[in-house]
């Protein structure tokens, strides 16, 4: 999951954006459009900043606490860019994990983790799975449940134009796959009724 740091070539991105917009018929000489290629290049550099940020370093300050319960961090906002059409999808991520040997992280770690993984070309299914994998790896967690709820603009602005449609994905790891009681407790912490025998 680690990504090597690199420098964004903004002048090249601006030239490419100028060429792209011209190719699809945008008049970049029109009033207000002159700086659009530069602004768009800067925007996408920000939206894809997660390509150049490490996630492993987030676990540098893991703590050990006396506890025997589950931990939930709910309603973490995020926005990302669908890699298929380069349109946004956005929503909230919810995380429950079962610590191993009392290993826990500050709550802000999870918001930064979601943000870094979302700031790259993504699909919702992979984003959900990658967050779960990284928490399992970084904390050596005994169990992880991640639920992501989002609105996909490629479903509302093009194709079926299914306005108001939301998509929900989940990923389970560890004890939540093996123990239905633990899995049920994790889902209940998110306020979700889940009546299957496992995640």
Automatic annotation (TrEMBL):
Residues in GTP cyclohydrolase I domain copies: 14-188
Binding site for Zn(2+): 82, 85, 154
Family matches, as InterPro entries: GTP-CH-I_C/QueF (IPR043133), GTP-CH-I_N (IPR043134), GTP_CycHdrlase_I (IPR001474), GTP_CycHdrlase_I_CS (IPR018234), GTP_CycHdrlase_I_dom (IPR020602)
Biochemical pathway: Cofactor biosynthesis; 7,8-dihydroneopterin triphosphate biosynthesis; 7,8-dihydroneopterin triphosphate from GTP: step 1/1
Keyword Hydrolase (UniProt): yes
Biological-process GO terms, alphabetical: one-carbon metabolic process; tetrahydrobiopterin biosynthetic process; tetrahydrofolate biosynthetic process
Keywords, alphabetical: GTP-binding, Hydrolase, Metal-binding, Nucleotide-binding, One-carbon metabolism, Zinc
Enzyme class: hydrolase
A GO MF term: zinc ion binding
Cellular component GO terms held in the UniProt record: cytoplasm
Entry's EC annotation: 3.5.4.16
Top-level taxonomic group: Bacteria
Reaction(s) this enzyme catalyzes, per UniProt: GTP + H2O = 7,8-dihydroneopterin 3'-triphosphate + formate + H(+)
Entry keyword Metal-binding: yes
Known partners and oligomeric status: Homopolymer.
Family the entry assigns: Belongs to the GTP cyclohydrolase I family.
Name this protein carries in UniProt: GTP cyclohydrolase 1
Species of origin: Selenomonas timonae
Gene this protein is translated from: folE
């Amino acid at each position: 999951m680690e990504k090597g740091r690199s420098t964004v070539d903004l002048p090249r991105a601006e030239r490419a954006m100028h060429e792209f917009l011209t190719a699809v018929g945008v008049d970049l000489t029109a009033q207000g459009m002159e700086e659009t290629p530069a602004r768009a290049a800067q925007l996408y550099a920000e939206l894809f900043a997660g390509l150049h940020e490490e996630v492993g370093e987030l676990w540098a300050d893991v703590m050990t606490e006396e506890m025997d319960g589950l931990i939930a961090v709910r309603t973490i906002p995020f926005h990302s860019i669908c890699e298929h059409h380069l349109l946004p999808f956005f929503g909230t991520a919810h995380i429950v994990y079962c610590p191993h040997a009392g290993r826990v992280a500050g709550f802000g770690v999870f918001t930064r983790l979601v943000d870094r993984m979302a700031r790259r070309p993504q699909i919702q299914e992979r984003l959900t799975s990658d967050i779960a994998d990284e928490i399992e790896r970084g904390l050596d967690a005994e169990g992880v449940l991640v639920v992501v709820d989002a609105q996909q603009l490629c479903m509302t602005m093009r194709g079926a134009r299914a306005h108001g449609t939301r998509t929900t994905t989940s990923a389970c790891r560890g004890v939540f796959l093996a123990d239905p009681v633990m899995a049920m407790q994790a889902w209940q912490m998110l306020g979700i009724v889940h009546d299957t025998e496992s995640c």
